[in-house]
């Protein structure tokens, strides 16, 4: 084929248009996805390292698109955030998880803490705490069985407003975890006032444990710092026995990762708890 600048430009142009079109289409589809009940939640077990026992789960959002099949949140959460749709979807996740957790307790399953991810866009809303309170009341789930995962970014802002919300949640009995810990620009000083219960060590550190570098040192520093501050520590993304071994040696409290289980449907999670399969 003959090469010309003009052609390159056209191809580039068409490519951009295609991508823009796809984004717009995706936004429109996301808009109706909630109404069409296309979202669902998967649960990834949280395992107590010392007892080798499941003690809870993290709830993770999935979208079953009629056109594209099941899609992971990395591909659509940013779009939900840009459009503000995350507020409604996030509240749906919260309600769905609290409802399911209460149902499990009513069926006699051991009581568990289930974690829900909260977008900064959601957390910044003035009525966020009221919405959480409302959902707990509506679903009759005790606050101590709900953990909210917020990112270091929210934590770092450390404004009077954010702190007030965290204290209100904490006073209600809701647990707070700092997600992806170690990837932000955290300063230790905020933990003085910060009402959190646990640190979730980002999986990037865990996965590079066996490579050369500082990841081992970082992990053991986070764990001992967490413990000195009276916080629980969770290692995310544990995939191998070697990683687990190191995490254990360091005294980490909980682990989450493919080594134990991928995120699974509520039905499978219930079976796992009842019949102890896979662990
Ligand atoms: P996250 O909160 O850090 O969640 C952990 C991610 O790591 C999940 O990806 C999980 O499937 C994956 N993971 C768990 N164990 C392993 C492992 O051993 N190896 C590897 N390679 N990955 C592992 P997922 O479900 O695709 O979620 C991606 C991100 O999307 C989450 O990261 C979270 O930031 C966001 N997200 C998920 N659900 C929600 C939600 O309901 N609301 C909000 N606002 N964000 C959510
Ligand atoms: Ca999380
Ligand atoms: Ca995380
Ligand atoms: Ca993450």
Automatic annotation (TrEMBL):
Q: Where in the cell is it found?
A: Cell membrane
Q: Which domain of life is it from?
A: Bacteria
EAL domain segment(s): 23-277
Where does this protein have coiled-coil stretches?
Answer: none
Write the protein's name. EAL domain-containing protein
**Part of the whole protein covered:** 510 to 788 of 797
């Amino acid at each position: 084929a003959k090469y010309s600048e003009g052609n390159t430009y056209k191809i580039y142009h068409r490519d951009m248009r295609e991508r823009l079109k796809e984004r717009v289409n995706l936004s429109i589809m996301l808009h109706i996805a909630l109404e069409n009940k296309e979202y669902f939640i998967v649960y990834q077990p949280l395992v107590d390292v010392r007892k080798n026992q499941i003690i809870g789960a993290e709830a993770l959002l999935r979208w079953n698109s009629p056109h594209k099949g099941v899609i992971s949140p990395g591909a659509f959460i940013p779009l939900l955030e840009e459009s503000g749709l995350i507020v409604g979807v996030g509240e749906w996740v919260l309600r769905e998880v609290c409802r399911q957790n209460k149902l499990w307790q009513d069926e006699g399953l051991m009581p568990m803490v289930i974690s829900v991810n909260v977008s900064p866009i959601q957390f910044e809303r003035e009525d966020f705490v009221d919405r959480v309170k409302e959902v707990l009341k509506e679903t009759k789930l005790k606050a101590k069985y709900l953990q909210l995962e917020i990112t270091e970014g929210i934590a770092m802002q450390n404004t009077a407003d954010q702190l007030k919300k965290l204290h209100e949640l904490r006073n209600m009995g809701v647990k707070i975890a700092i997600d992806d810990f170690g990837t932000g620009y955290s300063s230790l000083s905020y933990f003085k006032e910060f009402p959190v219960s646990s640190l979730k060590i980002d999986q990037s550190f865990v996965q590079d444990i066996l490579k050369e570098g500082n990841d081992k040192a970082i992990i053991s520093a986070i764990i001992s710092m967490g413990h000195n501050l009276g916080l629980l520590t969770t290692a995310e993304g544990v995939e191998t026995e070697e990683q687990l071994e190191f995490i254990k040696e360091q005294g980490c409290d909980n682990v989450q990762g493919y080594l134990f289980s991928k995120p699974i449907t509520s039905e499978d999670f219930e079976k796992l708890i009842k019949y102890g399969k896979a662990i």
